Amino acid sequence: MRSTPSIVRVIDLETTGNAPPTHAVVEIGWQDVTLQPDGRWELEGEGGSVLVNPGRPIPPVTMAVHHIRDEDVADARYWHDVARQILDPWPRRVALAAHRATFEQQFCTSALTHGNQWICTWKCALRLWPDSPGFSNQMLRYWRKPAGLEHERGLPAHRAFPDAYVTAFHVRDQLNEASVAQLVEWSEAPGLLPRVRYGPDRGKEWREIDNESLVGFLTDRDVDIRFTAETELARRRGGGEIGRASAQELLL
């Protein structure tokens, strides 16, 4: 009897905007990544996409990104009529995945996913591929050149299936470097940024900046910056390469 394969289903959404319930889904795309008998993960199946009636006009500012118009979705089904069957496929998946998954999670609620775990390929890329010049879905695509990715199938960008297809190659490669549990753990934490984003130390690795600059980032409004600064602070307190106390003993 053939065993039920483990599936990570990669999801991408196009929406009317960033903040539900004010905004809603206009398209969902997916692509599966499956654990093979040899222990490697690979893309499987054709994936697909479905247009969704958002129940409200699509603002021109978002039409300009994904080019989905009101008339394209006028006869489409509503989100709750299509979401569950896509988000909870059989055989049951071990996780859902998306690039910057916190965006998809706003719309793909726990009630629709049966509380399934998520893998964020953006957060995992920060950990696994810190030398990348950038961490957008498309930047990783062209920097890494994943084996097997069909260029035309991954276009146009900012449509649900092509974006899910591209993300699936990042998921595959991340799963072949780290366990599902590890990727989920990284995904549930804030992003660990490899380089400083702004200011006089912009572009430097965090371990390169001095203690006074590091302390200044501990109260930043960006949760990823705060988390990264706190992580570097903990490393220095633990006696890392530049673990020299200063800046009021690194805030004690």
From TrEMBL:
InterPro entries given in the database record: Ribonucl_H (IPR013520), RNaseH-like_sf (IPR012337), RNaseH_sf (IPR036397)
Pfam families: RNase_T (PF00929)
UniProt domain Exonuclease: residue ranges: 7-180
Keyword Nuclease: yes
Highest rank taxon of the organism: Bacteria
Molecular-function GO term, any one: exonuclease activity
Keywords from the named record: Exonuclease, Hydrolase, Nuclease
Annotated protein name in UniProt: 3'-5' exonuclease
